[in-house]
Amino acid sequence: MPKLSQPVRVLITAGPTREYLDDIRYLSNGSSGRMGYAIAQAALQAGWEVVLVSGPVELSAPPGCEFHQVITTAQMKDACERLFPACQGVIATAAVCDYKPVQRITGKMKKVGGPVSIQMIETDDVLAGLGHMKETRWVMGFALEAQNPRENALQKLRRKNCDWIVLNNPTAIGAEENSVELIESSGQTVGQWSGPKTLIAQQLISWLKGHVES
Ligand code: CTP
Predict the structure, then answer these.
(1) Which of 35, 97, 98, 150 to mutate to test the pocket of ligand 1 (most atoms within 8 A of CB)?
(2) Which of 1, 33, 62, 157 lies at a CB distance of 3.0 to 4.6 Å from 41, suitable for a disulfide?
(3) Is 94 helix (H, G, I), strand (E, B) or coil?
(4) Tens of pLDDT, residues 66-114
């Protein structure tokens, strides 16, 4: 009997994360989650198994995916590190909150009648953690760059041990459309797509299918 090949199982991160100052207020960003959810949908349509780890967004998880809701960066990191070993690869589209207050205040921070300073520290890097535990798995990151885009994206690819990085710019945040460049570890651009995020997602998955399916 012919051996049936196993479907690719992919981990996808999406949406923003939040870092709380107190029990009510948080730092975050305007990520809608659209790019990640569109990639999840395109991967399902391609016959892949999808594990979606998402920060808070207003979208519904695509039917058929394994969905994990998270809020903070630490929760996203924990979920991803637990789920990645059972996947063949990861596509990290999440707009992770890079800083968190040194201390989270219990209850509600009171007004003090003047300026306040909040000391912040970097959050953990979810993608870098996955990149360094990848072994035979493949890793695709996203890079949001305002200056020296290609140079910075390539540095990010190397620092986070990615196989590919998808370069886009800050206008992508919260938008319906995007314009992306896919860069491999040699620094070569191997794909370039613009238009609705749903279409870019299909093109990206179709490109990946040609590279990761055995
Ligand atoms: N990323 C992550 N965890 C973080 C920061 C980023 O997993 N704490 C991931 C994003 O999901 C994306 C990639 O790393 O796939 C690059 O994110 P980006 O925001 O472009 O870069 P940063 O690493 O945050 O660096 P900088 O803000 O200095 O450009």
Answers:
(1) 98
(2) 62
(3) coil
(4) 999 999 999 999 999 999 999 999 999 999 999 999 999 999 999 999 9
